[in-house]
Amino acid sequence: MNVSRGTVLTGHVAATILGSSAAIAAIIGMAFALGMAAKTPESAGLAVVPLLLLPFLSSAIVPTAKMGQGFRQFAQ
Predict the structure, then answer these.
(1) Residue 2 sits in the same domain as residue 29
(2) pTM for this entry
(3) In 1-76, where does DSSP find H-type helix?
(4) Which of 4, 30, 47, 73 is such that its CA lies 20 to 30 A from the CA of 14?
(5) 32 with 64, same domain?
(6) Residue 38 has pLDDT above 90, yes or no
């Protein structure tokens, strides 16, 4: 099949732009929803604290075999 290198590169760039646009839209939507749900700026700032703690409950830092039962199920 005769496909030029430019076509492959253009397809890759287009797919990356679409994926990044979807991720950015989701982030802005969540930020807007958390901001509208908060009654004060301080509570809006504290609403993201549980989201900031999620990476510490994943297997990125500690292997799941060394976690307790509840944390292990959540991380898996």
Answers:
(1) yes
(2) 0.57
(3) 5-37, 41-46, 49-53, 69-75
(4) 30
(5) no
(6) no
